[in-house]
Task: inverse folding
């Protein structure tokens, strides 16, 4: 059976100040900046990508930093927490690191027999670090965190839903996820049909039933969209046709330079994307220098001078 959805691909958030965003994800969390480009739909705004050495699908946190904008509010109809996977042996390191950097956190807590801590980035976006030994991925070893302690990519995302049934139907029927655990109104799904479910970090979607909670609204610190991974153009066409047959309204396939994308709203209002794995971030610069230069798609190159002049200067701190 052909697998249409492999797990998470990337998560994109709305941010405020660009330099503070860079500092948080590269210096505090130790991720690599793998691409410095622009929002293709709003070229006056950066699109910054952070991940492992190559920006592998399932590791990529991205941001649209808009400068001075109001903060959003966590609530229903939102992806409220993005959980990253860390080795079990690194949990005390991360607790000490957050304390040293004066990042307020809560926990450690237990959920689905896993230990995690919870905090916000500088804009208020919800983040968790989940300790697990069920992860064969490697982290970025060239940044501010040693490789054996480094973040391994995503673990799970939390979708807060006032009425989760329609979202669960979308995940299990149209997007071929399987329910693998349930606890205190939280339903965990893994990518893949029941015969081949990928019950490993990076493939988990948690649907949290939150009746009576205020509806969230977007602003700095809010997730703009969550992207799911598909193998290639052919599997993307297939899943798009399946979504249309099931009554959803995905966009046409859009060229995002490093992957191709379709977008649609899930029943609770969260923007979903399905992105191809190829061609990847080394399509326009070598792996060794990923994220160092501003990269523009060819249709914006004639406006490079104007675009660069309107963007704030940002700098990635080099590890000592």
Result:
């Amino acid at each position: 059976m052909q697998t249409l959805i492999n797990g998470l691909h990337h998560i994109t958030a709305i941010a405020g100040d660009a330099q503070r965003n860079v500092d948080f994800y590269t210096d505090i969390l130790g991720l690599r900046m793998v691409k410095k480009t622009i929002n293709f739909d709003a070229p006056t705004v950066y699109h910054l990508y952070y991940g492992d050495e190559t920006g592998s699908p399932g590791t990529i946190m991205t941001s649209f930093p808009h400068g001075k904008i109001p903060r959003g509010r966590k609530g229903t109809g939102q992806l409220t927490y993005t959980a990253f996977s860390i080795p079990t042996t690194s949990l005390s390191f991360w607790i000490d690191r957050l304390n040293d950097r004066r990042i307020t956190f809560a926990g450690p807590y237990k959920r689905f027999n896993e230990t995690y801590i919870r905090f916000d980035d500088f804009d208020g976006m919800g983040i968790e670090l989940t300790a697990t030994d069920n992860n064969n991925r490697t982290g970025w070893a060239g940044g501010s965190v040693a490789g054996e302690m480094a973040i391994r990519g995503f673990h799970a995302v939390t979708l807060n839903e006032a009425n989760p049934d329609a979202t669960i139907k979308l995940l299990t029927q149209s997007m071929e996820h399987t329910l693998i655990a349930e606890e205190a109104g939280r339903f965990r799904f893994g990518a893949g049909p029941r015969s081949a479910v990928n019950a490993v970090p990076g493939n988990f979607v948690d649907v949290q039933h939150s009746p009576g909670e205020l509806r969230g609204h977007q602003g700095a610190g809010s997730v703009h969209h969550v992207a799911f991974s598909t193998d290639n153009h052919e599997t993307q066409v297939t899943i798009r046709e399946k979504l249309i047959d099931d009554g959803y309204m995905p966009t046409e396939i859009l060229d995002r330079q490093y992957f191709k994308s379709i977008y649609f709203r899930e029943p609770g209002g969260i923007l979903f994307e399905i992105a191809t794995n190829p061609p990847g971030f080394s399509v326009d610069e070598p792996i060794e220098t990923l994220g160092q230069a501003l990269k523009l798609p060819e249709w914006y190159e004639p406006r490079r001078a104007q675009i660069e002049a309107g963007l704030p200067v940002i700098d990635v701190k080099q590890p000592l």
